[in-house]
Design brief:
Distance between the termini: 39 Å
InterPro entries: AAA+_ATPase, G_ENGA, GTP-bd, GTPase_Der, KH_dom-like, KH_dom-like_a/b, P-loop_NTPase, Small_GTP-bd
Strand order of the largest sheet: 8-9-10-7-11-12-13
Order of helices and strands: EHEEHEHEEHEHEEEHEHEHEHHEEEEHE
Keywords: GTP-binding, Nucleotide-binding, Repeat, Ribosome biogenesis
CATH topology of the largest domain: Rossmann fold
Helix content: 25-40%
Number of helices: 11
Largest sheet: 7 strands, mixed
Strand content: 15-25%
Subunit structure: Associates with the 50S ribosomal subunit.
Number of domains: 3
Family: Belongs to the TRAFAC class TrmE-Era-EngA-EngB-Septin-like GTPase superfamily. EngA (Der) GTPase family.
Number of strands: 18
Bound molecules: guanosine-5'-diphosphate
Protein name: GTPase Der
CATH superfamily of the largest domain: P-loop containing nucleotide triphosphate hydrolases
Length: about 425
Amino acid sequence: KPVVAVVGRPNVGKSTLFNKIAGSRISIVEDTPGVTRDRIFADCEWLGHKFSLIDTGGIEPFSKDIILSQMRRQAQLAIDTADVILLLVDGRVGMTPADLEVSNMIRKTKTPVLLVVNKIETKSLEKDIFEFYNLGLGDPIAISAEQALGLGDLLDEVIKSFEKSEIDFEEDDRLKIAVLGKPNVGKSTLVNRLLGEERVIVSNIPGTTRDAIDSVFKYYGEEYVLIDTAGLRKKNKIYDDIEKYSIVRAVAAVERADVCLLLIDAETGITEQDAKIAGIAHNRGKAAIIVVNKWDTIDKDNTTIKSFEKDIRSKLSFMSYAPILYISALDGQRVNKVMETVLQVSNEHAKRITTGLLNDIISEAILLNQPPSDKGRRLKIYYATQATIRPPTFILFVNTKDILHFSYVRYLENQIRNSFGFVGTPIKFLIREKSD
Ligand code: GDP
């Protein structure tokens, strides 16, 4: 899915525009721990085109004296993560030095930029857009976010930019692996290890307009894409220490990935930020592997792994399906397990169970543990079928939804996992009512 980022000075109307575009279709990374309340990311759709929208203004509270540095960070974030950038300016205020500064930054990238002039409520104000030609970003598009004027035309332009941008969102069938984790956990070190001598392309994939570093490498003759959320920032570390920026970049990387490597620092153990990043991968239905790095730094005895595992399983209880690896990216210890496990979980992520087999397991599960009843009605599960892969998604046809408790779905999930594994992949359920 393409990513669209909205950047601009405070009070130009970024959040208003974000809310208007996301509208009722908004589905913020819902149950991701911690990210929920920040309306930064939304899944949107226009004329059948799906995209993710980022409001960079939602990331940091603005304080007057550091506006420019914050704008630079937000612009850099947009450059790093977005496929299309919307620069929002205020038609009432007119062009400001800060607008010019940001334009200069984003004009240098290959990412398509749309210049959007907000607060143009009436025809008589339309002449106010012309001075913005000075920003050198092409034709300004006049809108009023508050009154929802001009938004359809704007979204048409956004969709056109996807087509213009050379990124092929659908057709790249190489497996994409995102390397995720908080700063200094060892992402770059691991990426360099994985690329090793085999790397065929070190910088960008030809044809991408994105500045993020995607590397293609070969493993047993197959090509894979590594999505590195650290690499580029080594040269240009302007926001790495601000957690929300890492989170937004993690979301953008996860969006494009099939398999997520969630790096944990063995020295510090699992932190809240690790849990947030893991939550993003889980909620987006991606295959996941928990990779405990810097294992060389730990004094070990025969209980060390057990106690690490216990801690991980309790703090990341929503991803009990993810395998755990203990590695040292620095000295290479067990790094060879990483790709092996990536291929395993990728297979599981794409596994399909026949309806016959699936229903055998469900019937057995029902016999073992009766479905719940409520006010004299008992839940009936008529049958189940697997609708999709990546992630495996099952439709359960039932008599009535409201007595199907979460815990019973959990139970069915466990029974399915006992029979079919699905190691490293979340499983989703869709519940459909159906009369007898
Ligand atoms: P990033 O910010 O996640 O990309 O982290 P880096 O790859 O830049 O690593 C941060 C620091 O941790 C560097 O000094 C690395 O040398 C060090 N480091 C990375 N992996 C390991 C490891 O497995 N063991 C040890 N001891 N240090 C590591």
